[in-house]
TrEMBL record:
<dbReference type="GO" id="GO:0005524">
    <property type="term" value="F:ATP binding"/>
</dbReference>
<dbReference type="InterPro" id="IPR030677">
    <property type="entry name" value="Nnr"/>
</dbReference>
<keyword id="KW-0630">Potassium</keyword>
<feature type="domain" description="YjeF N-terminal">
    <location>
        <begin position="6"/>
        <end position="215"/>
    </location>
</feature>
<dbReference type="GO" id="GO:0046496">
    <property type="term" value="P:nicotinamide nucleotide metabolic process"/>
</dbReference>
<comment type="similarity">
    <text>In the N-terminal section; belongs to the NnrE/AIBP family.</text>
</comment>
<dbReference type="InterPro" id="IPR000631">
    <property type="entry name" value="CARKD"/>
</dbReference>
<feature type="binding site">
    <location>
        <position position="434"/>
    </location>
    <ligand>
        <name>(6S)-NADPHX</name>
    </ligand>
</feature>
<dbReference type="GO" id="GO:0110051">
    <property type="term" value="P:metabolite repair"/>
</dbReference>
<feature type="binding site">
    <location>
        <position position="161"/>
    </location>
    <ligand>
        <name>K(+)</name>
    </ligand>
</feature>
<dbReference type="Pfam" id="PF03853">
    <property type="entry name" value="YjeF_N"/>
</dbReference>
<dbReference type="InterPro" id="IPR004443">
    <property type="entry name" value="YjeF_N_dom"/>
</dbReference>
<keyword id="KW-0547">Nucleotide-binding</keyword>
<feature type="binding site">
    <location>
        <position position="259"/>
    </location>
    <ligand>
        <name>(6S)-NADPHX</name>
    </ligand>
</feature>
<feature type="binding site">
    <location>
        <position position="121"/>
    </location>
    <ligand>
        <name>K(+)</name>
    </ligand>
</feature>
<protein>
    <recommendedName>
        <fullName>Bifunctional NAD(P)H-hydrate repair enzyme</fullName>
        <ecNumber>4.2.1.136</ecNumber>
        <ecNumber>5.1.99.6</ecNumber>
    </recommendedName>
</protein>
<feature type="binding site">
    <location>
        <begin position="125"/>
        <end position="131"/>
    </location>
    <ligand>
        <name>(6S)-NADPHX</name>
    </ligand>
</feature>
């Protein structure tokens, strides 16, 4: 939604009798909960406060975080008496124990303060207009500097200050957020690739009773936790492995055994009832000892040997290699005969592109290209934005597209562009895509549509990568695809229990 739509929806809510104060209290408290979920160990938190209600959100969040053990500091853009009335009230409720700035907080402490340093960007929200001016520009620069020099993490209230909430344009000196907690609904500018480096991980805080029904469905939306809850309902007590479904995986080749192992384990960890891995007979002896005991492995000498096995979904491609022309031809013939929902990844896409067989990208398919693979499938897209490439793809092919990137896009024809909320730059490493394809395969096998399976897989893998850092002892540098596998369980639980 646009900033203007948000302001009108908020005005309607207030007209209906909901007080602005209760809205701000709700927004600030929920934002504080999101901060605490991303940083389970309390540390120091500094609120950077502008004159509008965006600063009020940050002041409320500070009050809750202090209750939960955080040391809090405040930096206001100018005199506190210039704040809007409600924000003045929230500043008073936060109280003052003499601590005004991060520097004073640190001076007072005897020894280094433990825990993370978190900065709340409450400078500007949906009331922003144009480039950052005056003291706000200075405070934004200070936040970005602390992020670089002190390892601080920045959490933007509603939107990062200095980003146009409607277009995603980035103004000079804009806040670089690691997390953006957006209130009510994701502002459309946050979902544009131009804003990606400033927005970071997006979390949504809903406002109860906010009526968004009069607003036309957007052509871009957030792949949020809230929107995925219906896809992770508890299982019936009578659930059996037939309900969970069978995934058939065609993956791996000499030198790329790990891709098959990761895809198969991903399918298992996402709830598949049966995972059957088809590999070339030449690698069978090597791979069999690398796989979890739960995977059934079938050595094959030709693709025809895959057909007789009953299945609910296929995952084809991880680590199969590009192959020569004749292998590409046989491979494409094989795909033509598969009728169940399928995930095509990695070299499956490169083989299709090399053979010029893009018509294999049917409505049955979820394809998961990274930009390089996409370029091979759609070569005529130099200079296009990611959104334009995704739209062009959907105009040409009826498949579900999961277009990997720092903000992964999930879309298909007549559907909005759905921008994934979760994940971080630590996922830029080999094997992550293999896990993802297995996870989506499992979601398809239990009956989710291609679009829903791709949304769920993308969210869950991204969240698992976050958990590997926040609770698993990893850093962005060290997180591996196997760490993502280890945290998938908690990621699914997070969805069920209302996690961010
Ligand atoms: N929507 C909802 O339901 C809810 C919304 N809530 C929250 O309120 C936020 C919106 O609050 P808001 O309307 O007070 O606007 P906000 O952006 O804080 O400040 C605008 C002021 O900043 C200034 N200014 C503008 N541009 C500037 C620039 N480039 N550079 C420098 N200064 C600039 C200008 O002030 P002036 O300079 O004119 O004095 C302007 O008046 C919203 O994002 C959300 O966080 C929740 O609390 C509850 C539910
Ligand atoms: K902000």
């Amino acid at each position: 939604m646009t900033c203007e739509q948000m302001r009108s929806a908020e005005a309607l809510l207030i007209k209906s009798g909901v007080s602005e104060e209760s809205l701000m209290e709700h927004a600030g408290r929920e934002i504080a909960k999101v901060v605490a979920s991303f940083f389970p160990r309390p540390g120091k938190v500094v609120g950077f406060i502008g004159t509008g209600h965006n600063g009020g959100d940050a002041l409320v969040a500070l009050r809750y975080l202090r209750q939960w053990g955080w040391k809090v500091a405040v930096e206001c853009a100018g005199q506190e008496k210039r704040l809007k009335k409600l924000s003045v009230q929230m500043r008073k409720m936060l109280g003052g124990d003499g601590v005004r700035t991060l520097e004073q907080l640190e001076e007072r402490a005897s020894g280094a303060l433990p825990g993370p340093l978190v900065l709340l960007d409450g400078l500007l929200g949906v009331g922003a207009s144009g480039p950052l001016r005056g003291p706000l520009l200075e405070l934004s620069k200070k936040m970005n500097q602390l992020r670089l020099t002190r390892g601080a993490y920045t959490v933007a209230m509603d939107l990062p200050s200095g980003i146009d909430g409607n277009t995603g344009s980035v103004y000079h000196g804009a806040v670089i957020a690691d997390y953006t907690v957006t209130v009510g609904a994701a502002k459309v500018g946050l979902l544009q690739s131009s804003a990606c480096n400033h927005v970071g991980r997006i979390a949504l805080v809903e406002l109860p009773e906010l009526d968004l029904s009069g607003i036309a469905s957007p052509d871009v939306c957030l792949n949020s936790a809230q929107s995925l809850v219906p896809n992770v309902l508890r299982r019936d007590h009578e659930y059996h492995k037939g309900n969970a479904g069978t995934v058939s995986i065609v993956a791996g080749s000499r030198g790329m055994l790990g891709a098959a192992v990761l895809a198969a384990t991903g399918a298992l960890r996402a709830g598949a009832g049966i995972v059957r891995l088809f590999v070339s007979a030449s690698i069978y002896n090597q791979i069999v000892g690398m796989l979890p005991a739960e995977v059934m492995v079938v050595p094959c000498t030709s693709y025809e040997e895959v057909y007789p096995y009953p299945t609910d979904s296929y995952v084809v491609g991880p680590g199969i290699g590009v192959g020569n022309q004749s292998e590409q031809g046989q491979f494409c013939e094989f795909l033509k005969n598969l009728t169940k929902p399928m995930v095509l990844d990695a070299d499956a896409l490169n083989r299709i592109a090399a053979a010029g067989e893009q018509e294999l990208l049917t409505a049955n398919v979820v394809l998961t290209p990274h930009p390089g693979e996409m370029k091979r499938l759609l070569p005529e897209t130099t200079g296009y934005t990611r959104e334009q490439i995704a739209k062009l793809f959907c105009a040409l092919y009826p498949s579900t597209l999961l277009y990997k990137g720092s903000k992964t896009i999930i879309t298909r024809r007549h559907f909005p562009i759905c921008v994934n909320a979760t994940g971080h730059a630590g996922m830029a490493s080999g094997g992550q895509g293999d896990v993802l394809s297995g996870v989506i395969g499992a979601c398809l096998a239990r009956g989710l549509s291609q679009f829903e399976a791709a949304r769920l897989g993308s969210w869950a893998c991204g969240r698992a990568a976050e958990l590997a850092v926040s609770i698993g002892g990893c850093s962005e540098e060290s997180v591996l695809a196997t760490d993502v596998l280890q945290h998938l369980g908690r990621a699914f639980e997070d969805l069920r229990t209302g996690g961010a």
